[in-house]
Design a protein that fits this description.
The complex is a heterodimer.
Chain A: H1 2-19, H2 25-43, H3 45-52, H4 56-87, H5 90-95, H6 100-117, H7 121-127, H8 129-154, H9 157-188
Chain B: H1 2-16, H2 40-49, E1 53-60, E2 63-69, E3 75-80, E4 87-92, E5 95-99
Antiparallel strand pairs in B: 1-2, 2-3, 3-4, 4-5
Classes of the chains: A mainly alpha, B alpha+beta.
């Protein structure tokens, strides 16, 4: 509960800034970036736990993973609301939907929506582990599309690299762990 | 211990990664000293003459920058020369849709 309240603080600040006359346009960056960061945080504990083993810190992080993921979707939705306010009408939104800088964002959002909408135990049981996992893995594709969305809008590579780096490092560690396990299995056989 | 440190460092990187400013500061207007610049009200008029509805104006490097809705509802960011108030570059969602002939800044 306290965790959710903490995650809601930035949203509250953004919405109250909007109410006090801040331009929706100026809230696009903070909401989009926070969404991406939460998504990265949700993607890290899985591979990290495979490398570091299940210590208390990582187990705690893993237990919160779903919350981080759903919160990432929440901020993406808020980002979309700000976008809608900034655009002011449906027609121009549709008109620019085909621009690469825009549809990449929509696709990232759609994938996060899919993952978030089944982020509960009931959906997991109903879908079966494999199918459920497949949809959740869409979060990685969502990350890539969101980063593309950002790069295509701002033409600045550094933020994209900074955000994707932890995920790449975590996966590199995961592969190291897997390779080690394989070689140790061979060694004992 | 080291492992914990690395893990915390990764988490911290994800959370507090620096956020570089918008990358549109790379348009140079070569506009000279600011006391020779036209006032922002004239800039607003120039944008209004385009038929645009202004969202906001700001100074970007040595250029005037206007965020606006065009007549057809497109959201654009445009760079104006602060002295001549000429429209130099117009960007729509990250792609350049207008550049004044011969302008290379």
């Amino acid at each position: 509960m306290a965790f959710w309240l903490a995650l809601a603080v930035p949203a509250t600040l953004m919405i109250s800034a909007l109410a006090q006359g801040e331009l929706a346009m100026d809230l696009l960056h903070p909401s989009g970036e926070l969404s991406l960061r939460l998504l990265v945080i949700a993607l890290l504990p899985g591979p990290l736990i495979e490398f570091f083993g299940a210590n208390r810190f990582l187990r705690g992080w893993l237990a919160l993973r779903r919350n981080f993921g759903v919160a990432a979707f929440g901020y993406a939705a808020l980002h979309l609301v700000f976008y809608g306010i900034d655009m002011g009408a449906i027609a121009p939104i549709i008109a620019e939907f085909t621009l690469p800088a825009i549809w990449t964002g929509w696709l990232g959002f759609a994938l996060m929506l899919a993952a978030a909408s089944i982020s509960n135990d009931a959906a997991m049981a109903a879908l079966g582990r494999r199918k459920w996992k497949r949809v959740q893995q869409g979060a990685y594709v969502a990350l890539l599309f969101s980063l593309a969305h950002w790069v295509l809008l701002d033409w600045s590579w550094i933020p994209a690299v900074v955000h994707v780096a932890p995920v790449i490092i975590a996966w590199a560690l995961r592969f190291v762990a897997r390779a080690r396990r394989k070689s140790s299995v061979k060694g004992t056989a | 211990m080291t492992r914990k440190l690395i893990a915390s460092a990764l988490a911290a990187t994800a959370l507090f990664a620096a956020t570089p400013a918008l990358a549109d500061g790379d348009i140079a207007c070569k506009s000279g000293p600011k006391d020779k610049w036209q006032p922002v009200t004239k800039l607003k008029k120039a944008a209004w003459m385009e038929g645009w509805k202004i969202i906001k104006t700001e100074i970007s490097g040595d250029c005037y920058e206007v965020y606006a809705h065009t007549e057809s509802g497109q959201v654009v960011e445009a760079f104006f020369h602060p002295v001549t108030l000429e429209k130099l570059v117009v960007i729509r969602r990250g792609s350049e849709i207008y550049r004044k002939k011969g302008f290379t800044g």
